[in-house]
What does this fold into?
Amino acid sequence: MGWPFIGETIQLYSQDPNIFFATKQKRYGEIFKTHILGCPCVMLASPEAARFVLVTHAHLFKPTYPKSKEKLIGPNALFFHQGEYHTRIRKLVQSSLYPEAIRKKVTNIEAVAVSALKSWAGERKVINTFHEMKKFSFQVGVLSIFGHLDEYYKQKLKENYCIVEKGYNSFPTKIPGTAHHKALLARKRLGEILGEIIRERKEKRILDKDMLGQFMSFELEDDEDHGCLREDKVVADNVIGVLFAAQDTTASVLTWILKYLHDDPRLLEAVKAEQMAIFKMNGGGKRPLTWAQTKNMPLTYKVILESLRIASIISFTFREAVVDVEYEGYLIPKGWKVMPLFRNIHHNPEFFPDPHIFDPSRFEVAPKPNTFMPFGSGVHSCPGNELAKLEILILIHHLITKFRWEIVGTQSGIQYGPFPVPQHGLPIRIWKDSSSEVQDGCP
It folds into this structure.
């Protein structure tokens, strides 16, 4: 269980999660207890246990986060809740993230991707891949929430969001000058900025069909615990929650994909051949990608799935038992945290032979049920998973057909903060590929 109060928190967030979790599982089996962030926890490393907690008996467990994190995102954000309120908010969020909605955003996401790649390739400078992918994902997140937002608001949102993000995993304190205190102030400003955007839309009677528009057009409806769903603070909390969910995880996966492709030249050539066929079909990049084309990239899609599996950006999720729960002869006391371990399941050789080898071909056959959960499972699974995969496909298409890249410095090592990414954020140098007919006028 580790040290008093601290428990094994330091080991969990500083060690290679493969070693931390695998050592525990080897010693204690698929169900074991520990102490994380001041709380007693039960860790579950089997697909059946994950399904029990997240799907079939989800009503016995509630989502749980440290209060300091709830304050920075906003207590009304959908992933802090369950029941009727969660269902209603999730429907609103998903209405803007279903395939029918995001297919209309392909051209806009493409413009963001092309602009980002051109800026990275300028003067063949060295860039921090993870940091640049975070900027790209943030822009796509803003696009999906606000549509075409005034540049002034974009900049203000970005400035304050970055401050909140820096303080999100810092020690919670209200001492002036600390990262956490700065984050609290920036979070307050974010709420004010979003309030301005909402008021402006109301005054101009703008009824866009983006996510913010879905919230604003929702039928006014009272809720005993949370007020009306159109209340500005409810909208702000959920908008900020979506931005948080959309950025780091997608950026981490993109960073790993670039490393995996760089490290396997034969695979890179095969993916490039697939993408060049689409590139040529579009007149050498003169015409924009279509939704249908993004759904016809089978090898690239398997590369994404394998990257999600082997990197396992979300190693686990937190739940809390709302009553005493018995599972497989074990008692999980009320109030204890429960952690389904996605990483252990994704790296179990019983489900994925040679799990530490990067092999996209393993996804030519669908994984067994409940063995592949990169976006979680059940009612709290990530509502934006289709958008994440779409923006990855679009960026990879333009990167591979128009540019080349090389890793600068050491190519090994992983850093955790808290998501696993290649060492130093994967420094790379990117440049235009002279062998491709790069059209400056493409979207």
In short: Residues 1-6, 219-227, 438-443 have pLDDT under 50 and may be disordered. The chain has 17 helices and twelve strands. The radius of gyration is 22 Å.
